[in-house]
Amino acid sequence: MLQRTSVPSGDPARSPVICVTGLRGFPHVMGGIESHCEELLPRIKTLWPDHRSVVLGRAPYLPEREGEHRGVEIIGIPCPRSQHFEAVVSTFLSVLSARKRGAGLIHIHAIGPGLLAPVARLLGLKVVVTHHGTDYHRAKWGLLARSALRAGEWLALNFADRVIAVSPSLAAQLRQSFPKRAETISYIPNGTSELPGDADPALILERLGIEEGNFLLAVARLVPEKGLHDLIDAYERSSCNAKLVIAGSADHESEYARELLARASDRVIFAGVQSRATLKCLYEHCALFVMPSYHEGLPIAALEAASCGARMLLSDIPANLDIGLDRANYFPVGDVEALTGRLNADCADFEIDHAGVRARFSWDKAAEDTLDVYRAALAERPATRRPSPSPGVVEA
Asked: How far is the C-alpha of 357 from the C-alpha of 303, rounded, in Å?
């Protein structure tokens, strides 16, 4: 239960402003970071009602230039809708906007936008960066983009006042790679969500042409690192009689997404982006939730599925293993033959301890811990910091 209302120490006497950037916006905007902020920021506002929480999102993804959601202001920052440039351009303009709005702290999400951490510090802002995962491992990025993302990670770790990692394996990796910054790194996981339940299951299932308990479900963007091509390959090779439903779309047009959509059939259904109420229905009524990803932070879709009581089968990447399911609920990432064998099994074999997952991953606890990070960052006095060496550089 959220109860705390005290103002963090170190805040100015006036109502403090905290700006948040690195995300497209919310509500009803597809993406893990977007869902993360939609769950987290209103809870922080409840804990600390005296502050102004301002999301500086990306105007092309928002229905209005200015809005409000559960006490959080949402401002659309103009930027190009471009896979390679929108994050950096929007974050740069957001940092300037935060300074103009008199923000005391800016919270940057993801390591791509983390490139702008030094700019925010130069403008006198306290900086918190949430590291959602090693995005330079995503298959969609080329060498230049991967190099930029690695630079963003390095700059974020060296210039942010505080860094949040969403999974324990990521936090451990960062502390090992940046030992001089280890004390500034906090592990704060995503939580399990209480999704809205105002959708009619019968209508949703009829619209998609599926039957209760007789479909497999994947929820993901149509990008290579989500491994949906492996899932379709395994499904088509299996003897599974249930249909396969894939909810999600691509952020940007791509050859991969077109090739994936071309595999649609009466048994492989691409449902597109769905509301959270519809997703709740799909999680609750599927025979099995499957996540074949090659890369995740701490997957919100999997936590949502767990909170809705779904049986689960996940690839064995570190972020998925961090959820802590039984070994039987994992398969070797990229192993289509192994995945085919799992899809041939009885879905009842993939039950999980739903109560245990909900107990380990709480948005209320995440909000309290994030507020503590804000308090620590706001209370710190400016100090000259010697950056850690760049990757591959050995200090004398």
From this structure: 8
Please indicate, yes or no, if residue 12 is contained in any of the structural domains: no
Look up residue 167 and give its two tokens. 């999974």
| Secondary structure (3-state) at 348 | helix
The stretch 60-70 carries a mean pLDDT of 93
Question: How many domains would you assign to the chain?
Answer: 2
Q: What is the pLDDT of residues 241-260, one digit of tens each?
A: 999 999 998 877 789 999 99
Residue pair 79/58 in contact (Cβ under 8 Å)? The answer is yes
Distance CA 71, CA 52 (A): 8
Which residues constitute the domain of residue 367?
A: 17-191+362-379
Encoded tokens for 23? 């995300």
Q: What pTM does this model have?
A: 0.83
Alpha-carbon distance of 31 to 298, in angstroms, equals 13
> Using one digit for the tens of pLDDT, what is the confidence trace for 324-363?
999 999 999 999 999 999 999 999 999 999 999 999 999 9
Q: How far apart are CA 183 and CA 285, in angstroms?
A: 44
CATH number of the domain at 114, please: 3.40.50.2000
